[in-house]
Amino acid sequence: MANPLWWKGAVIYQIYPRSFQDTNGDGIGDIRGIISRLDYIKSLGVDAVWVSPFFKSPMKDFGYDISDYRDIDPIFGNIDDFDELIAEAHQRNIKIIIDQVLSHTSDHHPWFLASRESRTNEHSDWYVWADPKEDGTPPNNWLSIFGGPAWQWEPRREQYYLHNFLTEQPDLNFHNPEVRQAVLDNVEFWLKKGVDGFRLDAINFCFHDAQLRDNPAKPKHKRQGRGFSEDNPYAFQYHYYNNTQPENLEFMREIRTLLNQYPGTVSLGEISSEDSLATMAEYTSGGDKLHMGYSFELLTDDYSSRYIRHTVETLEANMREGWPCWAFSNHDVERVASRWATNGEVNHEQVKMLTALLGSLRGSVCMYQGEELALGEAEVPYESLQDPYGITFWPNFKGRDGCRTPMPWQDSEHGGFTEVAPWLPVSPAHRQQNVAKQQKDTDSTLNAFREFMAWRRAHPALIAGDIRFIETSEPVLAFYREHDGETLLCCFNLAAEPASMPLPQAIQHDFNDWIIHSNGTVQNDTLHLPAFGCYFAKL
Ligand code: TEU
Ligand code: CA
Predict the structure, then answer these.
(1) Which of 211, 285, 504, 535 reaches 20 to 30 Å from 448, CA-CA?
(2) Which ligand is nearest to the CA of 332?
């Protein structure tokens, strides 16, 4: 029987479908493109893919604004393509996790089109509507993440509606039980199709503060990280949606109850609150809420062993039944190869080390397409910009297009992604790092990725083991992973210069012959690590 706990310690490969592979020559990736690359995905040695939204959408936020939750957008294909994707993936023993954007819909969704018409119709209470203040201004001071007030005026109702993101992404009113039921019915539609789980977009945004209280101000030094520009006022508020709303936890239970009817399916919640470590623990506690929480904490600019250790240890201390899920990159943040570059340039040895580090943390991990190729953030000129978030805050914040440019499969004009001008240009630097070239190079990051993932699979301590950190000084990070009598020592040099640490315990053997990027040497109880070196050993 298939293992229902397959997701514990799984490696999940995130696909941004617009930019993965085009098969019908319109310059936009599609589901058939994913199918055509399943053998490549299999070759990476990952357990699952998470596919970003491909549902019917006006594409104001590139699919995170959904107008039909049960259909595929024609840009990406049709429902038969999706069925085939599931079948072909499952045949290769790859699980399929899909995105579910529950907190808001598109403003083109029939629910919203009805709701906006009047204050008295079947859907009038399905979104968050509020009267203006006496002077006609919005009901409170809430701001949208993407800029400006979180309230948009609707003349038909003479009321404002709430949108935490774009104005084209009105927030559903989760206080209304009919809304929750309708949302869960949509989720079940995909469970019946045979998906293996969900990445739940912005799941802590579902419930708003029913009293509509003003958000309190936040001191400047406490602003949220992750590329938020200093002049985005959103960063200077505490937000009521992520103050423990008991209703939100109750909704997590409703989701879990549904998933329990489909054994082996998993929920991975994207929780981006101010105190996301605590919120993650809460949302995954008790064994009756979400299975996994997606951590934002390593998507930040902070790159030091102290920070990484502190983050992982804090989460470990908070988390009980829940299981963490770590990522260094995704479709919303600057690619890690650039973000953590130590001298401003992508370094392939660093990326190999980071792959080994991410794959050694306790928890599941998400690797974002192109991370296996050491792709850095692409330069997207203002004229080519697509992301509305970036267009608003340019040039202080350049938006998310730099991590969303197409996959470079080969060294040709559009990198083998498409035959025509793609929706975002393929980066010339990425073309040099293409898949075909890296396949042939035994020393490439792509082959190091594969080799590491294969080795990881053979070591249950790395998948299921406990984690225990060792006292080190910068730039070395070191910990044990322990499972079933096996103890592995994992050491990483985060810097571009050699480093060393005292070896804490005698070792049985190292794995230097086994994995190319385990390359430390021991001399008189001291471990010497080359620049961006790693060391794996058995105690
Ligand atoms: O992102 C949720 C979220 O919290 C974002 O604010 C994220 O932190 C920000 O984009 C970082 O720059 C999810 C999706 O991942 C994102 O792509 C969507 O735009 C957003 O929800 C709205 O659906
Ligand atoms: Ca296409």
Answers:
(1) 504
(2) 1
- Protein residues placing their CB within 5 Å of the ion ligand 2: 22, 24, 26, 28, 30
| Other CB atoms within 10 Å distance of the CB of residue 526 | 11
**Catalytic status, residue 201:** yes
Which one of 47, 270, 401, 451 is the catalytic residue?
Answer: 270
Give me the number of domains the chain comprises: 2
CATH assignment at residue 500: 2.60.40.1180
Q: Which residues of the chain have pLDDT under 50?
A: none
Q: The domain containing residue 251 runs over which residues? A: 11-105+176-454
Model pLDDT for residues 177-211, shown as the tens digit of each residue: 999 999 999 999 999 999 999 999 999 999 999 99
CA distances from 309 to 195, 467, 493 (A): 34, 11, 13
Residue whose CA is closest, atom 17 of ligand 1? 332
Atom of ligand 1 at shortest range from CA of 202: 2
Q: Give the per-residue pLDDT at 468.
A: 97
Output the CA 26–ligand 2 centroid distance in Å. Answer: 5
Given 22, 47, 201, 349, the catalytic residue: 201
Any domain includes 230: yes
User: Which pLDDT score, from 0 to 100, does residue 470 have?
Assistant: 97
Are the C-beta atoms of 296 and 273 separated by less than 8 Å?
no
Q: Are residues 35 and 62 in the same domain?
A: yes
Instruction: Give yes or no: residues 428 and 525 share one domain.
Output: no
Residues 380 and 401 in one domain: yes
Structure tokens that stand for 152 in this block: 């948009």
Question: 303 in a domain, yes or no?
Answer: yes
Tell me if 84 is assigned to some domain: yes
Predicted complex: ipTM over 0.85: yes
Give the ligand whose atoms come closest to the C-alpha of residue 23: 2
| Residues 378, 406 share a domain | yes
Same domain assignment for residues 51 and 188: yes
372 is catalytic: no
The neighbour count for residue 433, using CB atoms within 10 Å, is 23
- The answer to whether 264 and 196 are in contact (CB under 8 A) is yes
> Do residues 158 and 128 make contact, with C-beta atoms less than 8 angstroms apart?
no
Question: How many angstroms separate the alpha carbon of residue 187 from the centre of ligand 1?
Answer: 20
